[in-house]
Amino acid sequence: MRSTFVAAAFAVCAFSLFACTGTPVQRVDVPPPSDTKAYQPQPMPKPLPPEGYDPTLQQAPPPGAPGQPVPPPAMPGAMGQPPADGHYQIQNEEAFLQAYAAHRSPRIMVMASRSSLSDPRGDSLGATADDYDLIEASIVEYFDASGKVTVQDADAARAKLNREQILRIENNDPAANRLLSTELQQDIVIHISAKPTQQSSFGHAVRLIAKAVSTTDARTLGTAFADMPLPMSKTNINVATRYLSEQLMGDMARKWSGNPQTDTIEVRVYKTATVDDALKIRKWLQRTPGVTNVINRGATGGSTTAYAAFAVSYNGAPEDLYAGLQEEIGQSQGMKAVDLQNNTVTLEVTGQLNLVTTTQKTETTTTTTVHTTEEKKIEPINPASPPPTQPAQ
How far is the C-alpha of 23 from the C-alpha of 26, rounded, in Å? Predict the structure, then answer.
């Protein structure tokens, strides 16, 4: 009885399955949604290719795929297509050009360090001296501003100075920087250090550090730095050097904004007999019209001569400050300017200066009699003693 019931149930299930598979399914059309707020697919614009995009590599696996590196983020200051004249308009350029002209157009030299390239085959990244030369040339092009800025060729310095001097300049030695001022009459040098690094946020890269320094007083006028992703292609170098140039121009424009507190003139006094004699010049600088502040930058002296330097906040050119100082002292003999360039005035004391200070004293003895007397105080500034003569052999 029980086996008969199971067999009957199995037969019913088999018949039902056969009937379902044999019957065709009718197609039903779904009407479009009547609600206007329903989601509608929107076409998405195709993004522009990244910097350095090469269409010949579009068949390669996409970045970020298994086994593929993730691309680095875009550097600040990424640029588009170059204009017709080949010169990119960058931020801070107009402000820099105005401040540059107001600052009497100092002469600029750009020098990229080559001291790390001891192996002619290249460094750890495979980059050669030619690759680093392109970094220097790119910053020169930005600062040249189509001829509006005086940028000197760094190869002239490399040809005139010896290897030791060049290495000292590339390593930002302030004493060596003065060689550019005395030998080549340069006012500002832009140092560029470019070295491979593995400490960037995207692995292997070139670490760029740029610094604009005055050759006369070693004053830092601007600093910029960035990690440039590989490869060292023309596009990547243009993007990185553009960013460095923007930062340097912005810093230099702010330093040259015309504010005497940020654009001081350094006055150097040489060949005085003692440090006390050199420091007496400070009082007369403070009395010069247009001077708002004088800061002692140090003084030193030996057995026969002494030297002092002052940072002077003065709203004007160095030659105007020198003329005002001469007028205030009232003497044309005994002191002369031996150098007037950039923001530096170099003075030498050639003879004794008797600086006279006059004070008035008024006394009232009666209601009708007033006695006024003048007291004059003479403060001599003595020149350095001449060097001893050597006896004739």
Answer: 9
- The whole-model pTM stands at 0.61
Output the six-digit token pair for 126: 């495979």
Q: What is the pLDDT of residues 118-154, one digit of tens each?
A: 455 666 677 777 888 899 999 999 999 878 898 988 8
Radius of gyration of the chain (CA): 38
pLDDT tens sequence across 190-232: 999 888 888 888 788 889 999 999 887 788 999 999 999 888 8
Query: What percent helix, strand, coil does the chain show, rounded to 5?
Result: 30, 25, 40
Segments of the chain assigned to CATH 3.40.50.10610: 87-255
The total of other beta-carbon atoms located within 10 Å of residue 205's CB is 22
* CATH no., domain 87-255: 3.40.50.10610
- DSSP secondary structure of 40-72: ---PPPPPPPPTT--GGGTTSPPTTSTTSPPPP
